[in-house]
Amino acid sequence: MEVRGATSRHEARECALQVLYAVDVAGHDPGKAFDDLVNEGDQRHRDFARRLVKLAHQYRQRMDDLIASKSERWDLKRMALIDHLVLRLALVELFHIDDVPPKVTINEAIEIAKLYSTDQSGRFINGLLDAIFSEHEQEIRKIKKNVRPPASDGQAGRKQGGKRPPKTDPKAGNDTDTNGKDV
Hints:
mainly alpha
């Protein structure tokens, strides 16, 4: 099995999911599995995927505890493996990657779940991530150095001077603003 290389952060998340799936199913070392499976794509996106895999493996117990705390009536062992791994990836991105806005992380997780899992997975992932984000929003916002909390004066998302921040294009399948810059 070989994982297609990543040329965007969206594809990097897909690579990370595929590597984590192989690690979980076969019990391989995450670093070795990544090296064996991912050989193509842009270096910066491969690095992002490798970082996600490393963090998801390193913090898997904490991420699983967060998932379990919000997945009422769902034992983690009964949860679809892909959903579980998508949640882990999204949570490590929320709690340990400081340059990706929380909304981008959550939207990417929903889209990847829809692509790789069941018809209901998008709603399931959205509900759990929203509940976890709501409970830990202040902690997550402190981690996100480059992301400002919404303004309370009706100017949400605006920087000083009234300019709007760059919009991301979720349909483009990557985390870039309208100028093509990675976010």
